[in-house]
Amino acid sequence: MANQELSKSLGDEILHHLERNANIYIQTQDQHNNKIDDQTPQMMIPIINISPQISSLREIKLVNSLLENGDGQIHSVKLICRNCKKQVQTKLSRRVGSGTFIVSCVLLLCSFGICCLACLPCYVDDCKDIIHLCPDCKHPNGSTPYSIFQ
């Protein structure tokens, strides 16, 4: 019985100290907040009512962008042909270029003269230059040379 009374009195004492410390903490926080409020200048912020402008769908214009030429592009592009002045989707033509020959020479040297491997880049489309042609008038509208470091 004495142990229960002792533990109850210790529990009450701990609870009393916790409540006292909590009250002290709250008071110091209130004092700190009051000091900050006293130090900050009071500013008047004007409130302006701005109603959002709602644009209708008729006011939105969609712009379809066209490229000037196909230079640097590896896929077919939509452009206006320089020759016939029509809007076209280019047709791709692939041709053997200087990059293809360089790769062939490197393969010839690395394969110790085996010609089969040296001819391989001439048959692989990814190793060829790309020419963008107009499908109507067949005029070239740009090119992309093959580069080893693409």
TrEMBL record:
Compartmental location: Membrane
Signal sequence residues: none
Membrane topology summary: Peripheral membrane protein
Gene Ontology MF terms in the entry: zinc ion binding
Gene Ontology CC annotations of this record: membrane
Domain annotation LITAF: ranges: 61-146
Keyword Metal-binding carried by entry: yes
Protease listed as a keyword: no
Keywords: Membrane, Metal-binding, Transmembrane, Transmembrane helix, Zinc
Transmembrane segments: 101-124
InterPro entries the UniProt entry points to: LITAF, LITAF_fam
PANTHER family (UniProt xref): FI16602P1-RELATED, LIPOPOLYSACCHARIDE-INDUCED TUMOR NECROSIS FACTOR-ALPHA FACTOR
Family: Belongs to the CDIP1/LITAF family.
Name of the molecule in the record: LITAF domain-containing protein
